[in-house]
Amino acid sequence: MGRFFITFAYDGTRYHGWQIQPNGISVQAEMQNALATLLRQPVEVVAAGRTDAGVHACKMVAHFDTDATFQTSQLAYQLNRLLPRDIAVDHLKEVPGELHARFSALSRTYHYFIHTRKDPFVDQFSCLLRYKLDFPLMNEAGRILASYDDFGAFCKTHTDVKTTICHVKEARWEQMSSHHYRFTITANRFLRNMVRAVVGTMVDVGRGKLSLEDLRGIIESKNRCRAGESMPAKALFLADVTYPEEV
Fold first, then answer.
1. Known catalytic residue: 52?
2. CA 163 → CA 51, 153, 166, 189, distances in Å?
């Protein structure tokens, strides 16, 4: 039995998230069905994380186990022919059996995109915000975020997480063009809905609705009701997953 890491990307617009759902299509179901068809056996695919409905991935990593014999490059080619157009496989690699796509990951990086004037060429994957935002102040907010490790204030309520501790390495905004901006956040793990809640709160800081001290109070409260609204899913991308060097 061999273990394989598969790296791929997807447009999450029409999916009900990564995880298999009883009443909706999922990226996991599409990937498992394609692999089962090609390998002629049931295959369970375990991802580095579970993106929510409408969230995209520039780089998702998952693993699966199989005793089938194949060339990794050939299977990647066949998968791309069989999978829908909105899922694209980059490559496959055989790895030691103790490595796990989720638990062996060292960090995840997400990007969130906003634009500040109407732009039909980015609207599908970016959030339009027409009001003026103070991005230097929002970057100060990012530095405050990185100084904490309990993000219960940004976790979706009624979830079964055992801990809300996350180690954020960076949280920063950068200007991509005259009216396009990107938020980058990297951490060892993320809570459900955390990134969109963080962005919504940072936007409130940038609008002047919250001060930096207000932000500290929200984080320390660990109360989701005090944080900002979740931003739309369409502008959120899983951008990278890192592993030990041997992977």
1. yes
2. 19, 12, 9, 11
Integer CA distances (angstroms), 9 to 24, 86, 89, 174, 216, in order? 20, 8, 6, 23, 35
Strand partners, 114: 127, 181
- Could you tell me which of 194, 199, 185, 190 has the C-alpha nearest to residue 154? 194
Cα–Cα distance between 18 and 201 in angstroms, integer? 25
- Give the C-alpha separation, 5 to 100, whole Å: 9
Q: Which of 52, 67, 123, 134 is catalytic?
A: 52
135 CB neighbour count, 10 Å cutoff: 15
Q: Are 220 and 154 in contact (CB under 8 A)?
A: no
- pTM given for the model: 0.95
| pLDDT tens track, the chain, 247 positions | 899 999 999 999 999 999 999 889 999 999 999 999 999 999 999 999 999 999 999 999 999 999 999 999 999 999 999 999 999 999 999 999 999 999 999 999 999 999 999 999 999 999 999 999 999 999 999 999 999 999 999 998 867 788 999 999 999 999 999 999 999 999 999 999 999 999 999 999 999 999 999 999 999 999 999 999 999 999 999 999 999 976 6
Is residue 64 within 8 Å of 46, Cβ to Cβ? yes
For the purposes of burial, counting CB atoms within 10 Å of the CB of 198, is it exposed (0-12), middle (13-18) or buried (19 or more)? buried
For the chain, how many residues are written?
247
Pair of tokens at residue 33: 């069905």
